[in-house]
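Our consortium's second objective concerns turning raw sequence data into structural hypotheses that experimental partners can test. To show how far this objective has progressed, the report includes one record in full. It was chosen at random from the queue rather than selected for favorable results. The single chain below, 329 residues long, was entered without modification.
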Amino acid sequence: MADSRSLVYRLSFIAVVLAFTVVLLGAYTRLVDAGLGCPDWPGCYGFLAVPETPGEILSAREAFPNAPVEADKAWPEMIHRYFAGSLGLLVAALAIIGFINRGKNEQPLILSYALLGIIIFQSALGMWTVTMGLLPIIVMGHLLGGFITLTLLLILFLNIKHGNAVSWASPVRSAALIGVIIVFIQIALGGWTSANYAAIICSDFPTCQGKLIPPLNFSGAFTVSSEGLNSYLGGHLDNISRVTIQWMHRLGALVTTVYLTLLIVRLFVSGWMKFALWLSAVLITQISLGITNVLLSLPLAIAVAHNGVAVLLLMSLATLVHYSGLKKP
C-alpha cells in the first residue's frame, strides 16, 4: 500500500506542475494571437505537427486555402496541445489507479473521476475554441477550465499527502473559501477582458480614458456572441463595451484587494504568519503586474506573468483552505 500511495503522490504532484505549465502556455498562446494558429483540431492543417516541408505546406494550403501557414503562430498552439494532451493522459492514469485501488482509501475517488470528466470537457472546449473562431464565451470557459483543473489537482495532491485528514470547522478556512470564490470571479473577469481584447483599451491608471467612471455599456460588454461572425480574432466589440469590461475588471481587482488584505490581517492575528506573508507578496506582485500591463500596453512577459501570478494566488488560497481545515494544523 505504501508503494501505491507513493506512486499516486508523485503522479499527482507531476500533474499539478504540468497543469500549471499548461495554463501558462495557454496564456502565452492567447497573448501572441496564436489561438487560431492551426485552423483544425486536434492536428494542425491535418498533420500531427506544424507542416514545414514544401510538400506539407502545399497540402495544407490546398486543404485550408483561407488559412495560410504561419509557423510562428502554429507552433505555440501545438505545443500547448501537446502539454494539454499529456496532462489528460496523466489525469486518466490517476483515475484508473484510483479505480484499481478503490478499496485502499489512498486518494479521493470522486475527485479523481471528476477531474477526468473536466479534462474531457476541456478538450471539447479546446476544439470549440478553434472551430468557433475564438468565440469569447468559449475562450473564457477554456481558460477557467484550466484554472479549475489546476486547483482541483492541487486539492487532490494535498489530500493524498495528508490522507484526507480534513475538517470543515476552522473559521480561517471559511474566510479562505470566500477568498477562493472572489479570486475566481476576478479571474473570470480577466478572462473575459482577454477574450474580448479589452486589456489595453485604457492606457491610463487609475482613470480609464481620462475618467474614473467612464461611459459604460453593460449589455454590450457582456454579450455572448454576435450574429454573422466567423472569427472573433482581434475582438468585435465597440470601444465603450471594451471600456466597460476593463473597468469591471479593475473594480473586481479593487474588491479582491480589499478582501484579501482583510484576510491577510486576520491571518497575522490568528498566527498564520507564513501564509500571511506569502499572500501579501503574491497580492502585491499581482497588483504591480496589472498596473504595469496598463501603463506599458501589455508587454508579453508581464502579461504572461500576470496570468501566472493569478494562478499562484488561487493555488495559495486553495492551499490555505486545506491547511486551515486539517484536524491537527
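The partners drew two points from this record. The mean pLDDT is 92. Residues 239-270 form the longest helix (32 residues). Both points have been shared with the crystallography group to help prioritize constructs.
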